[in-house]
Amino acid sequence: MTNAQLYTIVALCIYAIVMALIGCFSYGKSKTLDGFLIGGRNIGAWASAFAYGTTYFSAVVFVGYAGQHGWNIGIGAIWIGIGNAVLGCLLSWLLFANRTRKMTKKLAAKTMPEYFEKRYASKGMKVLAAIIIFVFLVPYSAAVYKGLGSLFSAVFPGVETWVWMLIIACLTAVYLVIGGYVATAYTNLVQGVVMIAGVICLIVAVLNHENVGGLSGLIQNLGTYKSLPGDPNPITGEQLTSIFGGTSFKFLCFNIMLTSFGTWGLPQMIGKFYAIKDTAAIKRGTIISTIFCVVIGCGAYLIGSTSRLVLDGQLPEGGVDAVIPAVLMEVLGNDVLGLILLAVIMILLLSASMSTLVSVVLTSASAVSVDLIPAIRKKSTKPETQMILTRLFCLAFVACSFVFATRNIPIIVSLMSFSWGLVSGCFIGPYVWGLFSKKITKIGAYAGIISGLLTVGGATLVITLSNNFSAAAAKSPEMGVAAMAVSMIVVPVVSLLTKNKDTKKIDEIFECYNEE
Which of 12, 57, 290, 322 could form an S-S bond across to 90 if both were Cys, CB 3.0 to 4.6 Å? Predict the structure, then answer.
């Protein structure tokens, strides 16, 4: 066993014990369904802010996006991190946090489908939303497993990837099933601290690498960079130092819009606003969460932009997904201090992924146990039964995600490509407009959900028939952005052409903004 492996195992054991203890500590606060799903609406600013940020950024961001875009775009990729912090975090908190907390409390809604049901008086909309969440978010969690598995395999080359995925699944299941959202919020707080410390240490280590030469050296060395002979995708120093992404400007814009505005309609992100304690906590949480996202988002893409220098322009054997793991081993794998930092970074990436995974699983499980099953059954489901079902479905979805990630099931891999954009594209219009306007009708909300589905589905069909499915998957960011834009336009337009039947009920709902 190498020193890197030893330090990582020790760090992993300490981390697992801390997570299990938090889960046990939180059990008493998660015995009711309200406590299990939204922490009794009593989560403070720091826990809420870190819960939002850690759910936003998973190992997929570091291993996939930061490595890929940093390698192919260069310095300009940092704009994705800036966009995520300003548009996906700051603006989301300013516009939606307080309104979401107040309206969902007034409606006694614990999930996104339940919000749709009570805001628009439509059980059918609740069922449709629950099905969309189940179909597209469970496969998304498989991507989180795959990102983490490849990362740990870089440090432990003799251990199969599925072993690490299984360990991650077990850790996730333990503290989620025991402690619910309370455990998730407090583990997110611990995970967030680890992530900030790890990213700062990694930025310092990468910038001090002899091939980088600090921040000024990074710009200078990237500017004179030349691709190796025989590179199938040669790139110039001018491209790598272009502040706006050079030839990748259009691609950069779509990714900023997808990964930033996408959070406005994702139930696992919006759910953090349901649970926050009060307006004062929201004000503090807005600042804390934005700072967190600036550090993590911009830090990740800054690290990715150094990859060509650190690796001497040699793309690792695993392709762009192996860029960040290779950078970690090159920068931190040479001395004792570096190896300790490597162990911290591994826990950082584990933390980032587990927080995202837990949020997605909790959202998916509640969509079935709280929204779908009671809507289909003729008899009402007792809260105790829903509590048991939710815990069981959490276990089941962790297991399903693990299986999907290890088996590489073609249909699941395909759904992963579209999950973020499609889910947000369906929900963003009905959710956002429903918070701000009394004039939004049930038919308008339905039109927003269906138009989001049809935008992605129709574009996928056309591109697949004219080219192939791989070409359609490559266009998934553009489809997701288009679906969000269409949903935001369709909802108010259709609502103008239709009427609400019970205006008195809607007036009562909107009175929540005059209450505290």
Answer: 290
Closest by Cα among 210, 240, 242 to 226: 240
The amino acid at 394: C
Residue 410 has pLDDT above 60, yes or no: no
Question: Residue with structure tokens 């502040």?
Answer: 243
Q: What domains are there in the chain, each with its CATH number?
A: 3-408 (1.20.1730.10), 409-516 (no CATH)
Closest to 61 (Cα-Cα) out of 308, 302, 412, 379: 302
**Is 210 buried (19+), middle (13-18) or exposed (0-12) by CB count in 10 A?**
exposed
Q: For residue 94, how many other CB atoms are within 10 A of its CB?
A: 13
Nearest to 171 by CA among 391, 15, 377, 25: 15
Q: What is the pLDDT of residues 436-467, one digit of tens each?
A: 999 999 999 999 999 999 999 899 889 988 88
Q: What is the mean pLDDT of residues 90-106?
A: 95
CB atoms within 10 A of CB 477: 21
pTM for this model (two decimals): 0.86
Q: What is the DSSP letter of 228?
A: P
CB atoms within 10 A of CB 18: 15
